[in-house]
Design goal:
Blueprint lengths: L6 E6 L3 H12 L4 E7 L4 H7 L4 E3 L2 H5 L7 E4 L6 H10 L4 E4 L6 H14 L3 E4 L6 H12 L5 E9 L21 H4 L1 H12 L2 E9 L10 E8 L4 E7 L9 E5 L3 E4 L5 H6 L18 E5 L2 E5 L7 H11 L9 H20 L3 E2 L1
Parallel strand pairs: 1-2, 1-4, 2-3, 4-5, 5-6, 7-10
Antiparallel strand pairs: 7-11, 8-9, 8-15, 9-10, 11-12, 12-13, 13-14
């Protein structure tokens, strides 16, 4: 049950983003409560999942209740992120925008400028900064055991041989569909978080499945300003298990298989605080070393709940929002450069 002092959160959209990530994580965060949910197709599910929330059919009905809200979460199709975020800002409401932040870096910058002008909070749901495997990579890097790192490899692979009939597979550029926007928004962001700004981008951006309208097999090579090279893959046609991460240094290599478990755990009904929440199987633990001389690196516990805990604290004036939106703008610039490189077959300078 919500406490009268809880901050009231409005969730725009109840597809996979709103249903699996935002609403459950908001509900699991002390001090926050889902108060309004917008959905045109999943109303019954939303009422069942969050009986204390008012469920409305569209954005107009949602913003008619703006005076009752403390935070807006935009978890709608990509093409609507910018107009809905701007509408929230115009209403004076802090806003969380799901990734990708916007279809273009220029549009994202427009939202950032509007939030600054209005003096309202703005952040982007880069939840995979809180993945167990990514947190483990951070810890390994901080340990110094790899020596000087020169290459970072990251794969986010799936096996989806038939295109799905949803907006993520639609070809209109305004939809910001395809893997480079969908998964690239995570793996590019993670590379930038670890190794900083990028000076050059090369990409191979392909459509491999019959009838597909958007990229479904992607390779991106980034040259960071500090000299590290990131090699990033995403594919809808990866039928075998590949390393999720491999990090090469001049003293050792770190290799990690397996994916963060928090998304399937939420889908299965688990929530932050439950036993084994965010805990990967021990068999997925990474290895660090050289040749046969390797040691197991225990996987960190994933903590998606930290995102909305930080949002709550920021709303109370007790801290910063968890993701600087400018960092998501930077990732969009890299994604745009990768698209251009894929078309031109050339390295693109940033």
């Amino acid at each position: 049950m919500a406490d009268m002092s809880d901050l009231r959160v409005g969730v725009l959209g109840y597809g996979i983003g709103g249903r699996v990530f935002h609403a459950p994580l908001v509900a699991a965060t002390p001090g926050l409560t889902p108060a309004v949910i917008t959905t045109s197709s999943n109303a019954a599910q939303a009422r069942t999942d969050h009986p204390g929330a008012e469920v409305v059919p569209d954005a107009d009905a949602f913003f008619a209740l703006a005076d009752e809200l403390d935070l807006v979460v935009v978890s709608t199709p990509n093409r609507t992120h910018v107009p809905l975020a701007l509408r929230a800002i115009e209403a004076g409401l802090p806003v969380v925008v799901d990734k990708p932040f916007a279809p273009t870096a220029a549009e994202a910058e427009r939202v950032v400028a509007a939030a600054k002008a209005a003096g309202v909070g703005l952040t982007v749901f880069q939840n995979r900064r809180l993945d167990s495997d990514f947190l483990t990579v951070r810890k390994v890097l901080e340990s110094g055991k790899l020596g000087e790192v020169f290459r970072f490899e990251s794969r986010y692979d799936r096996w989806v041989p038939k295109p799905k009939d949803n907006w993520r597979e639609f070809g209109d550029p305004a939809e910001a569909g395809g893997l480079l926007y969908d998964l690239g928004a995570h793996i590019v962001d993670q590379a930038l978080q670890l190794f900083g700004p990028v000076t050059r981008v090369y990409a191979e951006v392909d459509r491999r499945r019959a009838g597909v309208q958007v990229d479904d097999d992607v390779f991106v090579a980034l040259h960071h300003a500090n000299g590290v090279r990131s090699h990033l893959w995403a594919s809808a046609l990866a039928g075998t298990l590949n390393p999720r991460f491999r990090v090469l240094g001049d003293q050792a290599t770190f290799t990690k298989y397996g994916l963060d478990v928090q998304e399937p755990q939420i889908k299965a009904g688990m929530r932050p605080g439950d036993d084994a929440w965010g805990v990967e199987p021990a068999s997925d633990a990474g290895k660090i070393g050289v040749g046969n001389d390797t040691k197991t690196v225990p996987t960190e516990t994933g903590r998606y709940e930290s995102f909305y805990a930080q949002v709550r604290d920021a709303l109370r004036g007790e801290g910063e929002f968890p993701v600087d939106p400018e960092s998501s703008v930077a990732a969009l610039r890299v994604i745009e450069a990768a698209h251009r490189s894929g078309v031109e077959g050339a390295v693109v300078a940033l």
